Amino acid sequence: MQRRRFLARAGGAAALGATGLLAASQSGDDVSAATEGDDETSSYTVLSGTRYATKVFVRRADPASPTALVVGGMHGDEESGYRAAGDVAQWPLRSGTLVAIPRANQVAIRNDRREGAHGDLNRTFPTGERPTTKLARAIWSVVERHDPDVVLDLHSSVGIYRLHTDSVGQMLWPTDDGKAATYADRTAAYLNDAVVPWSMPYHDYRVGGRLTGGSPMLVHKVAGDLDRPGYIVETTDFLLDEGTQVRWTKRAAADLLARHGVEPAGGKR
User: Fold this and answer.
1) Phi, then psi, of 173 in degrees rounded to 5
2) What sections of 17-167 are H helices per DSSP?
3) What span, in angstroms and rounded, lies between the C-alpha atoms of 256 and 231?
4) Tens digits of per-residue pLDDT, 80-104?
């Protein structure tokens, strides 16, 4: 296990729908002040006034209970990931605090491309070092500001694991924090029992290897620098329509969040 480095704290603080073919802050990186709002909800913009500007949403049910960060849109061509994150950002909570960046890479989303102006955003978060782009530093400043107890990064994938070459399929990748792998196993079992139809066994969610900080991805940095639970959630577009992908991703997110004490009102939405 590689050496851990804890960052200084900064500032305050998925329904069945399938068918057979289912139709900063670091110096120089602007983070605007939070908008006015009540004690329950608020939002603010990072990198305001630039083409990278994107909103951060904050919902609080109990400031004394755990905080979760949910990110979508790291890759601009993974629509179900950022659509799911956008819905999650609006969920009322029964417990906890939820911080969401639904559209992390606005340039890539606008262009419907995986990469943005400076390549793959999810390869700009080296463990133990400063993020390598202005956008990555702004996103990491949100991590520092809210000091989350768990981080979810929502993606979409192609193909089916071990059936299609170089495809991860439906996968949950946990960090090597002690409880993350256990919770990933339990969430995968829940999804396969209650969400994925029995007639689609190849679409079962699986649990990938533990993320340790060995790659410059956001959740790897959560593992390597913070030593906290984090997850990459991948839902495939193979034989699934967009709405189903979004619903399944939200069910995965709701279950993982609840296991960490950040529970959406209405249960597993």
Assistant:
1) -110, 110
2) 79-88, 106-111, 134-146
3) 9
4) 999 999 999 999 999 999 999 999 9
